[in-house]
Write a structure and sequence with these properties.
TIM Barrel; M1 Pyruvate Kinase, Domain 3; Pyruvate Kinase, Chain: A, domain 1; 21 strands; 37% helix
Length: 474
């Protein structure tokens, strides 16, 4: 079956969607990939869900991508004697390392790294920013704060420190355990939470050692300061608007989203837009007009993937949420303005490589050649397909790769339909023959159509995309 939409849908699996029946319904509704959130659930539950997805992958005859999303260094306050207290504006409130249950005067903040980084004048945001504490004085074990914005604070609520780079790794001891477990399950992507600097990505990739690709989740303002380096080091990027909207002024988030999407396209990295896209559908069968516009904006901007979180993990209408997102994506992509906007924003990079130039030319050719139905991209590592997708052609992209791992990972890339090809070519005629056979089998073209092929010469050599060819299907 031909590709339905170019923009992909990533759905989070949770209690509302963990059964085989529900996951199958999500796939049929339009989900291309699934997120396993390691902040919740047990290893046994995650293993069972991955097994179901792989089983459905075989039954559906299509590749499905799996993202294992690590929790990261989530910072939380300790417990309260009565579970919660009311903090009043202007009062003094102390944070310390004492594990004793807290009260309306103090509470434990069991993260010594925070006290090492704090300085007077810093703000701490608690419970998604609903409570704001200003640091008046601090040392290595205490912080005396003044309540700027009060409210009820309860046990284990999250803490954010905007504009403060903490001396902590993006991968905790729990994450290491979860990472190894996820890699043994054979997941395709690892979500790296709370990336602060490019070294966080480099450290994660060293641990992963090529067993999966890395999605860097941008949730900290400090990551924006190192944006270009982080994008280039990552395999993909997620605009994680939840914590980003807490740590940055909320009105800045849409601006950052557009900046990140543009930068990802510049460096040919897939980008995912996440958090609260159809939030009201957790409890309601229909989204708000604003939510629909939010999803549509991400699609118009050229995001590779849009993501559903609690909507499918814990909501009352998980299948309806995927159906709604799919309808929004389809509506936007049927608008003639959609491709015009994407083409107007195309820029061939300075100092373009052969592969950059070939990918750019393939997109140009697709807009003038009659009856061209698809672009065929031969790729070993997947990067050539990244370059082809960066151009946002109006045609589907058939990625031919010998590696099932690469095929699954490419599911999250804009416009791409992966296909396994294990043949080793001795002539370009064989390349053409294989491309045509695959494209017809996938239902993307027929006799009388043209297809565009990008490949490398010498044949069967990775990293040498230097050929552009058109084929007329007889």
């Amino acid at each position: 079956m031909p590709i339905d939409t170019h923009t992909k849908i990533l759905a989070t699996i949770g209690p509302s969607s963990a059964s085989k029946e529900q996951i199958e319904k999500l796939i049929d509704a339009g989900a291309d990939a699934f997120r396993i959130n390691f902040s919740h659930g047990t290893h046994a539950e995650h293993k069972a869900r991955v097994k179901i997805i792989r089983q459905l992958e075989k039954e559906k005859g299509r590749f499905i991508s799996i993202l294992a999303d690590l929790q990261g260094p989530k910072l939380r306050v300790g417990t309260f004697r009565n579970d919660s207290v009311l903090l009043k504006e202007g009062q003094t409130f102390v944070l310390d390392l004492d594990p004793e249950p807290g009260d309306d005067a103090r509470v434990c903040l069991p993260h010594k790294e925070i006290f090492q980084a704090l300085k007077p004048g810093d703000d701490l945001l608690v419970n998604d920013g609903y409570i704001v504490l200003k640091v008046m004085s601090c040392d290595k074990k205490h912080a005396v704060t003044k309540v700027k914005v009060g409210g009820v604070i309860s046990s284990h609520k999250g803490v954010n420190l905007p504009n403060t780079q903490l001396p902590i790794s993006a991968i905790t001891a729990k994450d290491r355990e979860d990472l190894e477990f996820a890699l043994k399950l054979g997941v395709d992507w690892i979500g790296l939470s709370f990336v602060q600097k490019v070294e966080d990505v480099q450290f994660a990739k060293k641990l992963i050692n090529g067993r999966a690709w890395v999605i860097s989740k941008l949730e900290k303002p400090s990551a924006i300061d190192d944006l270009d380096n982080i994008i280039q080091e990552s395999d993909a990027i997620m605009v994680a608007r939840g914590d980003l909207g807490v740590e940055c002024p909320i009105q800045v988030v849409p601006v950052l989203q557009k900046k990140i999407v543009a930068a990802c396209r510049k460096y040919a990295r897939p980008v995912i837009i996440a958090t609260q896209m159809l939030e009201s559908m957790i409890n309601n069968p229909n989204p708000t007009r604003a939510e629909v516009s939010d999803v549509a904006t991400a699609v118009y901007d050229g995001a590779d993937t849009v993501m559903l979180s609690a909507e499918t993990a814990a909501g009352k209408y998980p299948v309806d949420a995927v159906k709604m997102m799919h309808r929004i994506v389809s509506q936007v992509e049927s608008d003639s303005l959609f491709y015009k906007l994407l083409q107007d924003s195309r820029r061939i990079p300075c100092n373009a490589s052969e592969a950059d130039s070939i990918s750019f030319a393939a997109s140009e050719l697709s807009s003038v050649l009659k009856n061209v139905k698809a672009i065929v991209s031969y790729t070993t590592s997947g990067f050539t397909t990244f370059l082809t997708a960066r151009e946002r052609p109006s045609l589907p992209i058939l990625a031919l790769t010998p590696n099932i791992e690469v095929a699954r990972r490419l599911v999250l890339v804009w416009g791409v339909r992966p296909h396994i090809n294990k043949e080793s070519f001795k002539s370009f005629e064989k390349v053409e023959e294989c491309a045509v056979k695959a494209i017809v089998k996938c239902g993307m073209a027929k006799s009388g159509d043209h297809v565009i092929i990008t490949a490398g010469f010498p044949l069967n050599v990775a990293g040498r995309t230097n050929m552009l060819h058109t084929v007329y299907i007889k």
